[in-house]
Amino acid sequence: MDAYTRAARDAYAAATDPGSRAENKYDTRSLESSYLARGQAIRVAETEESLVTYRSMRCRPFGEEEPAALGALVQLSGPEGNSFYFLGPSAGGTEVMHEGSEVLVITPSSPLGQLLVGKKKGQEILMPGARAPQKSKVVAVV
User: What is the model's pLDDT at position 106?
Assistant: First the structure.
């Protein structure tokens, strides 16, 4: 959060600095800086909203035969080894470390989230791939 806020402040300072005014009609530094500042401010707001959502989220353990749903940590085994996904309410694409493993946060509305929601331990899914779909197996839903 601190890094995002600092980046937003720096981008705003660059956009409003008198030294960044256009020197001619083709100079777009100031305009580009203002776009960057707006994007950084949006990122800060989205991150703050996600933090509030996660802090209020009630996590629970999933039973052995229970299907994946919001709040589940899903372990897949595929041709490239094991991978871990957390079905979260927001902040899809965020990578976190959990018990020594990298976990990718995905939302149920994402394409991968749609594949995983409702899947149980032992079921197979076809993961989209660059060349062809890859078969993966649900190892655990916790």
Answer: 97
pLDDT of residue 31: 82
Residues 6+ apart with CB under 8 A from 118: 67, 68, 69
Q: Is the pLDDT of residue 63 over 80?
A: yes
3-state secondary structure the chain: CHHHHHHHHHHHHHHHCHHHCCCCCCCCHHHHHHHHHHHHHHHHHHHHHHHHHHHHCCCCCCCCCCCCCCCCEEEEEECCEEEEEEECCCCCCCEEEECCEEEEEECCCCHHHHHHCCCCCCCEEEECCCCCCEEEEEEEEC
pTM of the full predicted structure? 0.79
Q: From CA 104, how far away is CA 93, in angstroms rounded? A: 6
Please enumerate in sequence order all residues whose Cβ is within 8 A of that of 24, keeping only pairs 6 or more positions apart, or say none: none
